[in-house]
């Protein structure tokens, strides 16, 4: 049985529309987060040229971000459970803005003379990953507090839309800024949204709706080991590791793949690289809503499993076909559908993490996201390494096999029916 305590809202927002404003803000946070992290992939051709880096070294730069991001997921989720989302997320966004500015100075003479631009870039991206680590564990805590269990997959689709929107906006916008002003000046411009959103969230953000008198109590030290000892949490984390390995191929290597393998120019590649993320904007809310409906219709275990099992096998088939497709545009279509379907099931993973540990949703979200981004960390470096030895066709086929493994792991995940009181909806929200 869940521990519950009366709570006062930590957000000044009140009334029937408050939770939707909070959710929209989480979508904006997610959008800016992805612009900040994806922009370096779009800039990678010029960065590699200016810093004399090859693909494996650039892969290490990508991985440095993911290493810092992954290793601090559980810690940042624990911090959100203890301190609340307002302070944690506002300070995190402030860090994004500062480190984006710092990245633009990576060729400064004193940096080159002391540690070298490559080592400095690795260090900055590692710390950047740490500052971005609270983003989704903190958002998980907010969604868990403001929405019922059978609404959480649909609600989580809003941060997923933000991921897709940020990833879709980044290639064309960053490419144009980069070509017009250079990659360093583009980074300075891209720091501004992080500072602005940090101020907004610090003013009105929060994870305790004042109308809800039965919110989970702040997680105690006693609750922390329960997540780490939960068999389902570890299986879900392993599955998300494989899922994110596939997804991060598109985050970091889809744009270079279009330029170097499929021979599109930079501007055309920047537009084609937005396609998976535009599709994500459509498919993520559909996947979240469908998952919630299936759970209501078929129960928690069967309703929750079916969607990711089928979807990730279909994604694997599309990736296999796209890798060997001779027609470049048809290949882009098949690969785009693959990533769209991977993101279609992302809300299911996060809603399941909230279900597994409702009183420690920051920690459970941090745990699966740690696994997922360790998958991205491995993907960022292993994908070009495998491609260099057996070609991009073999590398993408290997990735497709991992998608099948992620699907099959869902057969081992079991969740129980609701045993805690659902988050109530304010009466005015029903009108």
Give an overview of the whole structure:
This protein is an all-alpha fold and 431 residues long. The chain has a two-stranded antiparallel sheet with strand order 1-2. The protein contains 18 helices and two strands. The N terminus and C terminus are likely disordered. The two termini are 31 Å apart. The chain has one domain: Growth Hormone, Chain: A, CATH 1.20.1250.20.
Total strand segments:
2
Described by strand count, sense and barrel closure, the largest sheet is: 2 strands, antiparallel
Q: Return the CATH class.
A: Mainly Alpha
- What's the architecture in CATH terms? Up-down Bundle
Which residues sit in consecutive blocks of at least 5 with pLDDT less than 50?
A: 1-9, 211-224, 418-431
**Overall helicity:** over 70%
Tally of domains: 1
Q: What name does the CATH topology carry? A: Growth Hormone, Chain: A
Structural class designation? mainly alpha
Order of strands across the main sheet: 1-2
């Amino acid at each position: 049985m869940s521990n519950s305590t009366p709570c006062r809202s930590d957000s000044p927002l009140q009334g029937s529309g408050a939770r939707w404003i909070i959710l929209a803000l989480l979508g904006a946070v997610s959008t800016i987060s992805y612009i900040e992290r994806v922009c370096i992939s779009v800039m990678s051709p010029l960065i590699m040229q200016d810093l004399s880096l090859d693909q494996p070294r650039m892969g290490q730069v990508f991985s440095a971000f993911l290493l810092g991001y992954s290793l601090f997921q559980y810690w940042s989720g624990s911090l959100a459970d203890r301190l609340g989302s307002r302070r944690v997320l506002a300070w995190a966004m402030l860090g994004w803005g500062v480190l984006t500015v710092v990245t633009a100075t990576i060729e400064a003479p004193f940096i080159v003379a002391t540690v070298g631009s490559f080592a400095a870039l690795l260090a900055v991206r590692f710390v950047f990953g740490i500052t971005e680590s609270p983003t989704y564990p903190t958002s998980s805590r907010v969604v868990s507090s403001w929405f019922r269990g059978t609404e959480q997959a649909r609600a989580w689709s809003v941060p997923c839309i933000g991921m897709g929107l940020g990833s879709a906006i980044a290639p064309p916008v960053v490419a144009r800024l980069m070509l017009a002003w250079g990659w360093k000046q583009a980074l300075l411009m891209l720091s501004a949204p992080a500072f602005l959103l940090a101020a907004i969230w610090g003013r009105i953000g929060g994870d305790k709706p004042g109308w809800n008198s039965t919110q989970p109590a702040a997680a105690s030290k006693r609750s922390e080991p329960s997540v780490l000892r939960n068999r389902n949490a570890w299986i879900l984390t392993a599955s998300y590791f494989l899922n994110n390995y596939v997804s991060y191929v598109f985050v970091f290597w889809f744009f270079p793949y279009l330029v170097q393998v499929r021979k599109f120019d930079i501007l055309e590649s920047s537009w084609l690289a937005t396609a998976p993320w535009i599709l994500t904007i459509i498919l993520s809310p559909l996947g979240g809503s469908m998952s919630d409906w299936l759970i209501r219709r078929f129960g928690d275990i069967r309703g929750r499993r079916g969607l990711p099992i089928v979807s990730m096998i279909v994604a694997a088939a599309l990736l296999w076909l796209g890798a060997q497709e001779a027609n470049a545009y048809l290949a882009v279509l098949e690969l785009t559908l693959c990533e769209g379907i991977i993101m279609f099931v992302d809300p299911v993973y996060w809603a399941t993490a909230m279900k597994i540990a409702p009183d420690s949703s920051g920690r459970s979200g941090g745990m699966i996201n740690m696994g997922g981004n360790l998958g991205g960390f491995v993907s960022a470096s292993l994908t070009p390494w495998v491609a260099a030895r057996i070609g991009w066709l073999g590398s993408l086929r290997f990735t497709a096999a991992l998608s099948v493994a992620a699907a099959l792991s869902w057969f081992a995940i079991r969740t129980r029916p609701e045993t805690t009181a659902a988050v109530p909806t304010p009466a005015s929200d029903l009108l």
